[in-house]
Amino acid sequence: MTTVGDPLTDIGWLELLWMQPVGITSHSATLPIEDLLAHYQAVSGIRVENRSWYRAFNAYKMAVICLIGSMLVDAGHSDDQKLVLAAYGTSLLTQVGLAELGIEEKLEDGPVLPREERLALVQSAVGL
Questions:
Q1: What phi and psi values does residue 84 have, to the nearest 5 degrees?
Q2: Where do runs of H (alpha helix) occur along the chain?
Q3: Is residue 29 a part of any domain in this protein?
Q4: Would the CA dihedral through 112, 80, 65, 96 be positive or negative?
Q5: Considering the entire predicted model, what is its pTM?
Q6: Is 117 a domain residue?
Q7: Is residue 76 in some structural domain?
Q8: Count of structural domains within the chain
Q9: Does residue 2 lie in a domain region?
Q10: Domain assignment of residue 31, given as a range
Q11: Which residues, other chains included, contact 115 with Cβ-Cβ below 8 Å and sequence gap of 6+?
């Protein structure tokens, strides 16, 4: 997932991936993020700045994608288990974005998960 436009948007996305304990950083040869970004700056000539803002921006983008998946399941347009699982990321990603901006207060989520009866129906379809 790359962006046409500001290349630092992609750096923010990359940093979010680097924060995860599995995936990219689970490989023993993975560079520390600071080393990777220093190399990026050296070869691209693009100064990496405002990193927290870009990480927050990408966390919010992913939270919206998770919320849309939840809405699709809730409305009966999808029974995809991956969308159900992703729906649980909406709140987490929103909190990551807020923390990146220095906002530590816990906010009320509102309805970010599919309704219980819809979740039960989707889970029963796959034998859970």
A1: -65, -45
A2: 7-19, 33-44, 51-74, 81-87, 89-100, 116-125
A3: yes
A4: positive
A5: 0.85
A6: yes
A7: yes
A8: 1
A9: no
A10: 7-125
A11: 74
